[in-house]
User: Fold this.
Amino acid sequence: MFKLQELKIGFFLEISIIKKIIFNVLRIFSLYLSIFYYMSRNSKSRRINAPPRFGGYKPWGCPPGTGEPVYLLYEEYEALKLADYKLMNHFEAAVLMGISRPTFARIYENARRKIALALVETREIVTINGNSYTEKVWYSCKKCHTRFTQPSSLEKKTCPLCRSESVNGILPEPLQNPQYQKNIKINK
Amino acid sequence: MKIVITSTGDQLSSKMDDRFGRAPWFCVHDTNTGENSFIANPFVDSMGGAGTKTSEMVAEIGAAKIISGHFGPKAKTVLEKFDIQLIETNELLTIEELIKKSTESL
Assistant:
């Protein structure tokens, strides 16, 4: 009987020790496990109207810079163009690029900082493709409701079937999140 | 300049087809000579990728405009690389009317 009780006690002791060891190991490696299971999602590719019409910019009137060139991404150029050249709202610009407003703000901030870096440290600016794709804008006629694209060879924006000049620009599909769709007021 | 219209038949009185990749016939109208020619679509019953194949075929013809009801996503991505104007209409007109409309005041 004593033997049996000792065995039982020993067995329970062992289990408790094993439990403690497993618990501690899990506690130590929980960070790594969480990274493995909840890895961040791939970033959404950004829609741009067209890539920039230049390869880059070089500083002029100064001794040649020694630093590496600053790589400006296409989407950063697009963000800068929409926000500072076309004077668009950040929200409208984000919808145009198919991303959320905070993401747009981050890209825009990156672009500004890169250009400031290039100007101050007299570095070259080189444009490269980051994570973006181009999609041509479609237009719709107000009279006959035909939808059409406008290739670069054609200059006049007239309806190809009824020749009316009252033409709307259709924006690409808005964000999937219905929260954002409430505030969109773009088709002017 | 050549205009391509998707059609349901091989006659001028037949109606436009509202699909691009799976349209049975294509009408090719040459605005310089005023000729119409009908081409049968070989990819009507293909298992997949009809849009890409037909859009490559249309680009080889040398079309400047394509009139159809709807372009699929695969066809759009191929056709937007070429300098082709894509036109989508909801009205199902005959091909004669569409040719008249698109060449009235060029």
